[in-house]
Amino acid sequence: MPDTEPKDTEPETAAPRTYSEQTQWMLAVRDRRDRAAFCALFDYFAPRMRGMMMKSGMSSAVADDIVQDAMLSVWRKSASFNPERADVAGWIFQIARNRQIDIIRKERRPVPEELATPETTGEHAEQVVAMEQETAKLRAALATLKPEQRDLVEKAYLGELTHSEIQIETGLPLGTIKSRIRLGLERLRHELKGAR
């Protein structure tokens, strides 16, 4: 007797990928121009970007400008976001870093003599020089870290991400994240101690 039961010929498909809440907001902005989702993105990333900019030596006013410009670019460039190619945090922070680089380059261009501001003198100038030297030492020390350590240290301390947020962003096990950050910080301390 022939088998009359219908056979399941549907191929098995992989479970749909689940995205972080931030990625879902970004997709809502990309696909539907969702303003509420953009506000949520702004509220989540703006303070983190601002902290990262200020820790890298930017003034609060310049940091605020970079955040505003970067988030405006996020809105304008949302169509180019692809969660398969880039993590939402990495994508947004890259936009902010690019804007920061633009500003640094602009500041380093020679200024016509009549527009140049007079040099600061005395104690203020010494503080500025000392701060620049410390920042240069920190950058040099960061450059000595292995890329995987440097990336996680920057995310934790410049990006102000928690270990759990880094885990979501990178997909690395929590133990690996903590270990790399600890080893990176030990190396930084050693390098900075040697630089003094």
Distinctive features:
196 residues, 69% helix, mainly alpha, 8 helices, flat, Arc Repressor Mutant, subunit A
Structural features, described:
- The protein has 196 residues and is mainly α.
- Helices cover 69% and strands 0% of the residues.
- Helix 1 crosses helix 2 and helix 5 crosses helix 8.
- 20% of the residues are buried.
- About 3% of the residues have low confidence.
Please give the radius of gyration in angstroms.
23 Å
Main beta sheet: none
Helix content: 55-70%
* Quaternary organisation of the protein chains: single chain
> Tally of extended strands?
0
The CATH architecture assignment of the largest domain turns out to be Orthogonal Bundle
Q: Tell me the β content.
A: under 5%
Structural class estimated from helices and strands: mainly alpha
| CATH homology-level superfamily of the largest domain | RNA polymerase sigma factor, region 2, helix turn helix motif
Q: Termini separation (Å)? A: 89 Å
Order of helices and strands: HHHHHHHH
Pfam families: Sigma70_r2, Sigma70_r4_2
InterPro entries: RNA_pol_sigma-70-like, RNA_pol_sigma-70_dom, RNA_pol_sigma70_r2, RNA_pol_sigma70_r4_t2, RNA_pol_sigma_r2, RNA_pol_sigma_r3/r4-like, WH-like_DNA-bd_sf
GO biological process, one term: DNA-templated transcription initiation
Region (Disordered): 1-20
